[in-house]
Model the fold of this input.
Amino acid sequence: MATYLITGVNRGIGAELAKQATAAGHEVIGTSRVVPDGQDWLQLDVTDPKSVARFGRDIEGREIDILICNAGVYLDKGQNLDTGFALDLWAQGMAVNVAGVFATIQATLPNICKSRGKIAVISSQMGSNARAKGGSYIYRASKAAVTNLVSNLAVDLHGDGVALGSYHPGWVATDMGGSAADINAETSAKGLLERIDILSMETTGVFEGYDGAEMPF
Ligand SMILES: NC(=O)c1ccc[n+]([C@@H]2O[C@H](COP(=O)([O-])OP(=O)(O)OC[C@H]3O[C@@H](n4cnc5c(N)ncnc54)[C@H](OP(=O)(O)O)[C@@H]3O)[C@@H](O)[C@H]2O)c1
Done:
């Protein structure tokens, strides 16, 4: 049994990751921005320094084997080059998808290092330079940046025995992915958990799909 910490478990892929990891007998510490009554999730808004600091105190001393940074936003979907992509959307998108992932990792690092654990970041093939199809500049740039962050942290945390990977979850039917998506959250989460399970120091820095497909950076 391992202890998973998963961000954004209140809906979408995060909810399914938490459900399946729990069903497999693991301990799951879930986080969400808003914690409804009766839920034991930890409150975490990854863009709010006070929330991140409180979250760090909440998990103090607990060993975490696997951190999954799942929380993310796609704010510029469908925007056009002439009038879209306002500066405040850039700030928000980068705050959640890049700085927020970094802050989550930084707050969790003592717990992960303690157990020589692993860190999985849910990125996207939309951030791949080799698959640049235009549009969605904020989302694409944020996912390119977070994949780059994972590559660099994989170098810096190698000595601590902490393995990191970036994962493309597929095009998934969630609020973000929409109903025309290729796969459901169940299929995506199942594949992601299998890939994360085999992440090791030998494969640290990997960027791959939920189905094991190698992703170009
Ligand atoms: N769906 C796809 O096709 C697809 C494809 C490629 C990559 N991804 C990536 O997969 C991950 C999950 O996506 P999804 O489809 O499950 O999206 P979703 O259904 O829109 O869920 C997004 C999750 O992120 C949380 N979140 C947003 N901003 C946050 C913040 N500031 N602090 C903490 N949590 C925050 C949301 O919480 P609230 O409910 O409070 O907003 C929600 O739990 C994302 O990183 C996304 O970029 C998805």
Notes: The helical segments are 12-23, 49-58, 87-114, 137-156, 185-198. The chain has one domain: 3-209.
